[in-house]
Amino acid sequence: MRKTAFLRLAALALLGSGILSAPFGRAQSTLAKPAPPPPPPADVLVLANGDTLHGKLLNSVGGNVTFHSDMVGDVTVAWDKVKELHSGQQFSIIPKGVELSGKKKAPALPSGTLDAEDNSIKVTGANTAAPIPVANVAFIVDKPSADKLLYHEPNFFQAWNGSATLGATIINSSTRQFTYTAGVGLVRTVPNVSWLNTRNRTSFNFAASYGEITQPAYTDNTATPPTTVPVNTIKSGIIHFDGERDEYVSPRLFVLGQFALDHNYSLDLHLQQIYGGGLGVTVIKTPKQELDAKATVQYEKQDFTNAAGDNLIGSTFAGAYQLHTKFFSYTQGVNYIPAWNDTTAWSFNEVNQISFPTYKNLSFSIGTLDTYLNNPPATLPPTVNNSFQFTFGLTYAIKSKY
Fold first, then answer.
1. Backbone region of residue 47 per phi and psi (left: phi > 0; alpha: psi in -120 to 50; beta: other values)
2. Residue in 317, 304, 209, 185 with CA at minimum distance from that of residue 256
């Protein structure tokens, strides 16, 4: 009896659970998330020879159209090779002759979907009118990127590009010798695209090297009586740190503020501090190279290890050059630093670095740092005026995703 009663109770429990769960399960199914919307239709590029590509329009720069196709990848063709182009994405058109240095001219940009045919572009969206001749178009950029670069300033931790370099030399023979070098260069240009004029630029540079040459103690048996020669160590140390902020008042002219800190053991320079401001001009600016010339008025303080320091009022006349090619990158910086209240207290330095890409963000670099100080203090042994440093090492490129 007990067994039969137990089986009946179990059957009722199973039946009840099925009755209760069925409506609940149906309710769950009715509350399922709606299916995601279908992806937008692919953009279409029809070439002059009749070939048709389906994919995504990326941009148009310098009279060329860059289009991504899943079958052939990225394709770049001149506008005169394009028969038709249709895109449902949102793009902004930057006509030739329009200089965009801030937010004021942004609302005037034609923005919307594109249809190009017969060497003209029809834009359906905001600020649009008659079709725009292809010959009058400087850039076509996706609207989200254009809005971000025009309307938003990156925060302090965004949009930095640059490089970090490490190198070392170690020798262990009758003398022990080692040299360690390190450097970091960071620059943030806002905005960082060629179709907008630069509004501001911030840069920081750090370079350091330290080395020692040690002659172990030994016994000179040629002397009478034999003499023990103590350990002799020669040190070298160079540290440089600088920063600069540029605010552009026109596409080529900018005002700047800067500081620089230098330590050079070989020149008996404990610390040189420079704080100043001035004007700069971009002499050359192309996608591959840039040359800036700068002049400042500044306060300069020099502290020497074995002599009294100086307080100086002076200037820095500088040139900065960058060249980027497919096979190497080259940077050069030249600074002439005179003092107006002590004409003998002038200095000069030159920095060069060439980097050869090796693998992804890594490259092999060779660099020089030449420093001339006209007024080092008189010391024993005598301090020379010039120090020259040759370095090589491995460089990692720092690239912003902003």
1. beta
2. 317
